[in-house]
Design brief:
Nucleotidyltransferase, domain 5, 9 helices, about 350 residues, 2 domains, binds 5'-O-[(R)-(carboxyoxy)(hydroxy)phosphoryl]adenosine, 5-stranded mixed beta sheet, 10 strands, binds zinc ion
């Protein structure tokens, strides 16, 4: 069964074809450059750019999959969570194509897409596992008993990890998107110069909070401004390093705690921050030391992409969980716990 997948929850237009027999056939991503000047995603511009980019991308991907002129066996699109206007573009196109082709359609949960993305790799994790979902909008620890059976065991009370990276990058004048920029700057940071607090690690449980760390970063930046209000490049690198270490440590400590408390033996890491090299390094070491296995999607499938939507949608469509009528709705806010088992 060949399923076309469309991702449009935020500022990336992603399209892919996943075949339930042969795996991923083709995938393409168009990252929207229009937001750079604003230092963050502008929802209305995101929606307009999805309209401009999506249909040509669908054509390109169908051609690349060797399916030009033929219909797929189903269409999956991101139904939520995400920006309402952006989601509506993918949902309306996805449902229209499915209706025209007379094939089933499936509205996919964006975070389920992320969570199942490691299954696209050759060393796919077996169920059950604990998932650490770290993206621009979410920071969650999820107990995954089986596909579709999700229990959220830890979440953030304020900022998401990716959001904290983005805000720190803005503060340090490192541009957008912030995560890769902070990680790059951190490479030349002096590890001995600053030590930032590890939020919430001294408290029991698996709840995250990043707003205190954000304030600490802001205070440190302000304390190192020169007469002109600038911060020198080495200090920027040192702060980026201290910030990244604090976030990575917090995620690592809570993820290991979730593994121990849930009794699961495997950890899956997904979402944009899962591309962070330092996070992977620390989780690899800590899991190996404690007898846990850890799995990640390949780097390009950590951040938003169409492949994860085609894949999750294919699993649900193959299980008969699809719609065939012409209407559609999106779910800008939608909990993983509302999903049904696959
Ligand atoms: O999953 P994603 O592409 O979109 C959402 O669903 O939110 O995640 C984007 C987030 C952004 O906040 C970005 O700064 C962060 O992931 N990110 C990173 C890295 N690459 C992307 N954060 C830290 N290190 C990275 N290498
Ligand atoms: Zn995402």
């Amino acid at each position: 069964m060949k399923i076309l997948g469309i991702e449009s929850s935020c500022d990336d237009t992603g399209v892919a074809v996943y075949d339930t027999v042969n795996g991923l056939l083709a995938h393409r991503l168009a990252s929207q450059a229009v937001h750079e000047a604003f230092g963050g995603v502008v929802p209305e511009l995101a929606a307009r750019d999805h309209i401009r980019l999506m249909l040509p991308l669908v054509r390109t991907v169908l051609e690349a999959a060797g399916m030009a002129g033929t219909a797929p066996d189903g269409v999956a699109y991101t139904r939520g969570p995400g920006l309402a206007g952006a989601l509506l573009v993918g949902a309306s196109l996805g449902r229209s194509l499915a209706f025209a082709w007379n094939v089933p359609a499936c509205g996919v949960h964006h975070m389920e897409g992320h969570l199942l993305a490691p299954l696209l790799e050759s060393d796919a994790p077996a169920f059950p596992f604990v998932a650490l979902l770290v993206s621009g909008g979410h920071t969650q620890l999820v107990d995954v008993a089986a596909p579709g059976r999700y229990r959220i065991i830890g979440t953030t009370v304020d900022d998401a990890a990716g959001e904290a990276f983005d805000k720190t990058a803005k503060l340090l004048g490192l541009g957008y998107p912030g995560g890769p920029a902070v990680a790059r700057a951190a490479e030349s940071g002096d590890p001995g110069r600053f030590r930032f607090p590890r939020p919430m690690v001294d408290r029991p449980g698996t709840t995250f909070s990043f707003s205190g760390l954000k304030t600490h970063t802001l205070t440190t930046v302000d304390a190192h401004r020169d007469e002109r209000g600038d911060v020198d490049a080495q200090t920027v690198a040192d702060i980026a390093h201290a910030f990244q270490e604090a976030v990575v440590d917090t995620l690592r400590i809570k993820a290991l705690r979730a593994l121990r408390e849930s009794g699961r033996a495997r950890l899956v890491v997904a979402g944009g921050v899962g591309a962070n090299r330092r996070l992977r390094e620390r989780l690899d070491a800590e899991c190996a030391e404690n007898g846990f296995e850890v799995f990640y999607p390949r780097l390009e499938f950590c951040t938003d992409n169409g492949a994860m939507i085609a894949h999750a949608g294919a699993l649900r469509i193959a299980a008969g969980q699809h719609v065939t009528d012409g209407g559609f709705e999106v779910r800008p806010r939608w909990s993983l716990e509302e999903l049904s088992p696959i």
